[in-house]
Every structure is written in structure tokens, then in C-alpha cells.
């Protein structure tokens, strides 16, 4: 029980600690604890993970290494929204006005690469790096930099691609990504590191590497911006139109890397928080 309290964040919940204090010295090998009253009075004070568990489950079991149940939390059905005054303020939302790096990564994977038959080896998580790292400085131990490429994929029996993404296009940021990606073609240590990477995670991936970038062309983007870049070092780039409705992929060489080179942007419906003072009151105003 103490492990659950610490791991769930309930160690800061005085009401839960008060409710379970009577069991602290209990030496029974199995306990059943009814937390119906606690949930009815304190549901909205719990973190999101606990609210999800208690709302959509009937019981919560904690087992030991022998898979024997040691602790069982039970509760009766309760109303999760019976006290409006305890709810947090309504967060005003609106349709997205811009794309970020996570959006470009999603579009590249689901709308472009997969639709062109590419297999995904590694991809960055929304709001974080991926869990598959490229180590390009062998022999330097813990000091070496861990490099997380936004997307690593391959077209079977053809080539592999390394892609970095940016939400908002700026020549400086895109050129920085080009410089970094180019090392995987020109620097032997980097080339060896990516070869070891694909051997480890997918031996079917070809050892012919292409590099590309993806970005959203906001309303201030012009063709002159592309001309400022060393675009010839890339094999392709994915371009999301400023209106966020469609994408195009351009190859810089003669090799045809993609059978489908344009299409519509298809994203899960997401919103952004609207910055507006006293927005909650406005949601309840009615027209006369």
C-alpha cells in the first residue's frame, strides 16, 4: 500500500492518508479497502491518471511477484460531476492557428511516408524525443552526445531516410538541420553509427541513406527563403502549405524517392488554448 501511495502521488493527499492510516500496522497477507467515501468526496482533487482509473474501473488490485493479490481497492459507483463548484475553470479553446514540430512529424509519418510504402524504425514522441538513440561518438563513453533523429524509416529493398522536422520555417533553423543531417553522409563516424543503428533495430533496412527535412510554410514563407539554404545537400524536403490543408514533397536529385508527391493533410482533431481574459464568462453569455 505504501508503494502505491508513493507511486500514485497520493502521499500528498491528506484525506487519503487519513483514510488508510488504520491499515499501516496491519500484518494480514491480503487486504480489501473500500474507498467509496473517499472518492465521492475527493475525486476532483486527484490527478488525471487516478481519476481515469477510478472512473473507468470497478476495482484496483496490487499483486506480488507470485501474482497473488495482496491489496484490493474497491468502491461503489459514484457521480464524478455532482458538484459543479469544485470543477476547475473552463479552458477556452479554438482551432489550431499554427503547426509545431510534432504536427510535422505526424504528417510526415502518416500522410507521406506510410502512404509511400515506407517502414518506420524510429520516431520522436509528441513533446519529447524518441526512445531510440544514435551514438555517433564511439569510444567517448558517457560523454558522447545522444542524437535523436525525428524520423528514421526505409523503403524496402531501396533506401533508408533520416528526416528532421521544424514547425515554423526559418532559414537558420532549417539550415542547422541540414548541416547536422549531412554528417550522416560525409562523416565516417556518423555513417557507421547509423549503420549500426539500423542493424540493431531493423536488419531489413537498406544501407543507402537519404536525408530530408519537413516544415510548415507559414504565411511569411517565400521561395526566396528556400534559395537561402544549401538545399542541394538534401535528397528531399516535405512542405506543408501555409493554410495547413495540403503537403508536397520535393526531391532534389534525379532519383524518384516517392511515388506520391502531394496530398491532403489528415490530422486528428486537436485544438489550442485560446488566450483570452475572463473567457469563461463569455462561454455562458447568450445573445438577446
Helices and strands in order:
Layout lengths: L1 H7 L5 H7 L10 E4 L1 H7 L5 H9 L2 E5 L5 E6 L18 E3 L5 H13 L5 E5 L10 E2 L10 E2 L3 E5 L3 E10 L2 H16 L1 H14 L7 E8 L6 H5 L8 E5 L5 E6 L10 E3 L6 E3 L5 H4 L6
Parallel strand pairs: 1-3, 9-10, 10-11
Antiparallel strand pairs: 2-3, 4-14, 5-8, 6-7, 8-9, 11-12, 12-13
Helix pairs in contact: 6-7
Characterization of the model:
The protein is α+β, with helices and mostly antiparallel strands and 288 residues long. The protein has two domains: 2-86, no CATH class; 101-273. 28% of the residues lie in helices and 23% in strands. The chain has nine helices and 14 strands. It has a seven-stranded mixed β-sheet with strand order 5-8-9-10-11-12-13, sandwiched between helices. It has a three-stranded mixed β-sheet with strand order 1-3-2, with no helix packed on it. The chain has a two-stranded antiparallel sheet with strand order 4-14. The longest helix has 16 residues, at 171-186. It is elongated, with a radius of gyration of 26 Å. It starts with a helix and ends in a 6-residue tail after the last helix.
Amino acid at each position: 500500500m505504501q508503494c502505491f501511495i508513493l507511486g500514485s502521488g497520493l502521499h500528498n493527499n491528506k484525506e487519503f492518508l487519513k483514510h488508510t492510516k488504520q491499515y499501516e500496522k496491519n500484518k494480514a497477507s491480503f487486504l480489501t479497502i473500500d474507498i467509496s467515501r473517499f472518492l465521492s468526496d475527493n475525486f476532483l482533487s486527484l490527478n488525471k491518471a487516478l481519476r481515469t482509473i477510478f472512473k473507468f474501473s470497478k476495482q484496483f488490485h496490487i499483486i506480488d511477484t507470485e501474482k497473488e493479490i495482496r491489496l484490493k481497492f474497491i468502491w461503489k459507483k459514484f457521480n464524478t460531476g455532482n458538484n459543479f463548484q469544485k470543477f476547475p475553470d473552463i479552458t477556452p479553446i479554438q482551432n489550431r492557428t499554427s503547426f509545431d514540430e510534432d504536427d510535422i512529424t505526424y504528417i510526415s509519418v502518416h500522410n507521406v511516408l506510410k502512404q509511400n510504402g515506407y517502414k518506420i524504425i524510429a520516431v520522436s514522441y509528441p513533446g519529447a524525443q524518441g526512445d531510440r538513440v544514435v551514438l555517433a561518438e564511439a569510444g567517448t563513453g558517457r560523454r558522447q552526445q545522444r542524437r535523436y533523429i525525428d524520423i528514421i524509416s526505409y523503403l524496402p529493398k531501396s533506401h533508408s531516410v533520416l528526416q528532421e522536422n521544424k514547425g515554423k520555417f526559418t532559414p537558420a533553423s532549417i539550415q542547422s538541420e541540414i548541416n547536422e543531417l549531412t554528417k550522416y553522409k560525409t562523416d565516417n563516424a556518423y555513417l557507421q553509427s547509423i549503420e549500426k543503428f539500423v542493424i540493431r533495430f531493423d536488419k531489413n533496412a537498406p544501407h543507402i541513406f537519404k536525408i530530408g527535412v519537413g516544415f510548415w510554410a507559414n504565411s511569411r514563407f517565400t521561395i526566396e527563403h528556400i534559395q537561402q539554404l544549401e538545399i542541394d545537400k538534401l535528397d528531399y524536403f516535405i512542405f506543408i502549405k501555409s493554410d495547413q490543408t495540403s503537403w508536397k514533397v520535393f526531391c532534389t536529385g534525379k532519383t524518384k524517392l516517392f511515388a506520391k508527391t502531394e496530398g491532403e493533410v489528415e490530422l486528428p482533431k486537436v485544438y489550442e488554448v485560446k488566450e483570452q481574459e475572463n473567457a469563461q464568462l463569455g462561454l455562458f453569455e447568450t445573445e438577446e
